[in-house]
TrEMBL record:
It comes from the Bacteria. Residues 10-132 form the Activator of Hsp90 ATPase homologue 1/2-like C-terminal domain. This is Activator of Hsp90 ATPase homologue 1/2-like C-terminal domain-containing protein. It comes from Flavobacterium bizetiae. Transmembrane segments: none annotated. InterPro entries: ASHA1/2-like_C, START-like_dom_sf. Belongs to the AHA1 family.
């Protein structure tokens, strides 16, 4: 399992909304500078599906990151299963005006675990910057 985390200086409501609403996800869900999140569909409910279309800025490559939510506890926990059956979870621990967000997930076999950890930490770091600056 890979775990990434960060502490965000904002309310739990704001962090939750920015993590879950498509118009916000498109702004921070970037692991590598020459990629972007082109489309987001997100049915945040148990059994609901999510799909992020990730694309290179030059249009040469894209892929869909998708799965199903297996557990959703409002303002607290999101668990999911990806289409390749890997699982993950995101926890939100709030303390006053800060939120510690922690994501744990099963890595793929195609890429090194250290690279996947770096990519996901970059995404969490981008979320922090986006939330704290908007």
């Amino acid at each position: 399992m890979i775990t990434v985390q960060n502490t965000i200086h904002a309310s739990i409501d704001k962090v939750w909304d920015f993590w879950t609403l498509p118009e916000h996800i498109k702004k921070w869900n970037i692991a590598i500078d020459d990629w972007f999140t082109q489309e987001v569909d997100n049915d945040l409910s148990e059994g609901g599906k999510f799909k992020y279309k990730m694309s290179k800025k030059d249009g040469s490559l894209s892929f869909d990151f998708e799965g199903i939510y297996t557990k959703v506890e409002n303002l607290s926990l999101i668990e999911y299963r990806l289409d390749d059956n890997r699982t993950g979870k995101v926890s939100f621990e709030h303390n006053g005006n800060t939120v510690k967000i922690t994501e744990t997930f099963e890595p793929t076999k195609q890429d090194s675990e250290s690279m996947q950890e770096k990519w996901c930490q970059t995404v969490i770091d981008n979320l922090k910057k986006y939330v704290e600056n908007n």
